[in-house]
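Lecture notes, unit on protein representations.

Consider one protein chain, 408 amino acids long.
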Amino acid sequence: MDRRSFIKTSGVALAASAAPLFPLSAFAADEIVVGSVHDLSGGLDIYGKPMVDAMMLAIEEQNAEGGLLGKKLRLASYDPQSNMQLYAQFAQQAALKDKAAVVMGGITSASREVIRPVLDRSKTPYFYNTQYEGGVCDRNTFCTGVTPAQTVSKLVPYAMNKWGKKVYVIAADYNYGQITSQWVKKFVQENGGSVASIDFFPLDVTNFGPTISKIEAAKPDMIVSALVGGAHMSFYRQWAAAGLTKKIPLASTTFALGNEHIVLSAAETDGFLISYNYFQNLDTPENKAFKERFYKRFGRDYPNITELASASYQGFKLWAEGVKKAGSLDGDKVIAALESGISIVGPSGKVTIDPETHHCVLNVSIAEIRNKQLNIVKTFQQEKPSDTSAVCNLKKNPKDNQQYVIKA
């Protein structure tokens, strides 16, 4: 399956337009609006479409249970088209025009940092359901994805024990890649290794030939990739075409978040190691039931339920539990309820909001890619966001509002 076919079939059929999925007139006074600002077109749509699918499923399930506070929920979905200006515009529209009770959105950290101040000003609770580099400290914001202390700390030593201690790092050139690469370096050095080089690439780069030659000359034992987006998928194709896939193994903090392992061939990806909170082959009753509901809604030919889809589903469920506990849609009351340490058992297992950081305590697994399948090789239970907790305590400092660059 090529990228064009994958994108056509992986997401729900949503128009890539600047208009919300439902026009304002569709929202009655007795309905609750949930805002979504996720890429359905542009370079990051491989991540955004499954996230919107999962949110639609979660909202439909909530409505089947009677809604929240006696009201039905409606999704106002905007497509920012991987454009930073549109992230800000649509976050404002969701909050002020649609009067959304919560907004979930953003994929890259850059998009999050555009959305976050807009929703802070409108006092609209914001859920960022994406794995990222850590450090956001904002009482109005909840980060439900994994951070480096939860995944990179496990992936790097596991890969080093398997392959060797000389590591070459390639990463996207924005704050996620820059900060995560420093965490990779930290964990490499803590485990007795060395970093041959750290190379950064803008999100639109597609020619990796010179870098591949540079890596080959450095002769590392392994690569750690923090590349991001559809353009960067070119690296993996060019790496395999150079005959290096079987010579220098690769671990990644981002690979398969956009189902790249399905778009690419097995020969191009076999043996890669990745680490996330969720994999669709998790063998639990909750995940089996979730997959059945997901496939019933979107079809059994759905390519793969991603980490980001699971995080979006779980982010909605956490917010809904906060509303139930608060007995209100008032933002301050919902935030206070979420800060009580609300837990759910979702597709990935137990997920608990950490009151001090507004991040999540959750399970983490390492998987190896074989024949386009993500096969779990090791699982770690209830990992804490210890990187962010080192710099953020919203219980002591509720007015803190920034992203810290955590010194790795």
